[in-house]
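Journal club side-thread
Mid-discussion, someone asked how the predicted structure for our own chain would compare to the paper's figures. Pasting it here so we can look after the session.
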Amino acid sequence: MRVRTTAQPPWWSRLRPYGESAPVPRARLLVVPHSGGGPNRYLRLFGDLRDDVEILGLTLPGRERRRTEPPGATLDEVLTSLEAIRLPELPTVILGHSMGATLGLHLAHALGEHCVGLIASGQEPRDGVGWLSEDSDDEDVLRLLELGGDMPSAILADTAWRTALLDNLRADLRLGRESVERSRGMRIDAPITVLCGREDRLVDQDVLAGWGAHSAAGCEVHVFAGGHFALFDPVNRRQYVEAVERRLAAIAEPAG
């Protein structure tokens, strides 16, 4: 019997409408957002995918529909959240941006043979925690936003928004550190596609090919115009859609 997947709150939610007339999903795309962010911004990114691909986005505590919850999650909590969406088991592509790419590696590993591809966007392969930690002062954490080039000054000028943003970023820095420490030596059987903006000031593009050490099925790197959030530029949207479609194309068509 074929059944529809129901995304369960609070961790995963659908990123496009899924009415009764929609076909039973044949594949799944999991979207793992960047530090401090939630999945709503990714709603339009993959709207052109065929309608038998279920698209789910991860929401961590403290943001979007979970904004009333204290920020902070452990890697084990993120991995356990897969149990709510796993059935039926579907061929799955994972797209993670920035910190989400490192989380995506762990999710791909947890899914095993059901993961058919990881797309690592705007993130270096990490073997250390980098220049920031949850103990960094506010100005250093906010410098991360400046380098990313994606934060309106009006939000930073609002005390409440600024505090909430800093709390979320510090929680993500803790989660990112745990994810990096536990990813050393990790390999997945699915191929990895690396996408990055040429003007991304948070990424050393010379090391992007190092993602290949995490895959037993190969790695390809694509660099294009734009900064850290180049994926939200409509000019680059097709790059991301095609990266997902290439992985889905490897899935065997259902019989008859």
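Post-session note: The longest strand covers residues 115-121.
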